[in-house]
Amino acid sequence: MGKLDFIYKRHSVRKFKDEEIPMEDIKEIIKAATYAPSGKNQQNWHFVIVKNKEKIEEMAKIVEKKNAELASSTDDEKKKKSMTKFLKYHTVFRNAPMVVLVFAGPYPSTGIDILEEKGATQEELNAVLLPNPGIQNVAAAMENLQLAAANLGYGTCWMTGPNYASKEITEYIGFNKEGYFLAAMTPLGVPEESKLTSPPRKPVEEVLTIIE
């Protein structure tokens, strides 16, 4: 057993057994998510869990409808094909026993107010906003969530593809928290397959720069 084996247990899982997850495990997984690092300790995240199978299926249909609507609104066949090509991946959550919707809330980027006060250009403002620390907080929480779930024997799949239907999904589930928007979602359940794999990763040497 390696020291970091809990990291390598996480895989993108898209097929699940029809088994419920005990509420005790759900709360432990969400608790782990909330222990992610958070700039200014804003903890600008909120987790909505949908367990009702009919509602999960309806969310998948909402994504299908929005996908078709967007695809039909362009005459560019290449764009149309690109829009519909990945639809099956945008709806894989439909066969999971539950779906976790991760919402992101407001986050004040350091220095923006001063830059605006001194009349900074939009380019200067964009340069500071580009790293989007508020989303980084939520992404860190999602990673914690997935690592915790994998360590307990559950499968997840980080999904942002369905975000083009985020407004419709949010309205459908009836979630309303001022300033919050749907950032990502993940199905959560017991993997159907016993042997899980992940695509190869780039060599460390390719993505690592050391400055001495």
UniProtKB/TrEMBL annotation:
Pfam families: Nitroreductase. SUPFAM superfamilies: FMN-dependent nitroreductase-like. InterPro entries: Nitroreductase, Nitroreductase-like, Nitroreductase/BluB. Gene3D superfamilies: NADH Oxidase. Residues 7-189 form the Nitroreductase domain. One of its GO terms (molecular function) is oxidoreductase activity. This is Nitroreductase.
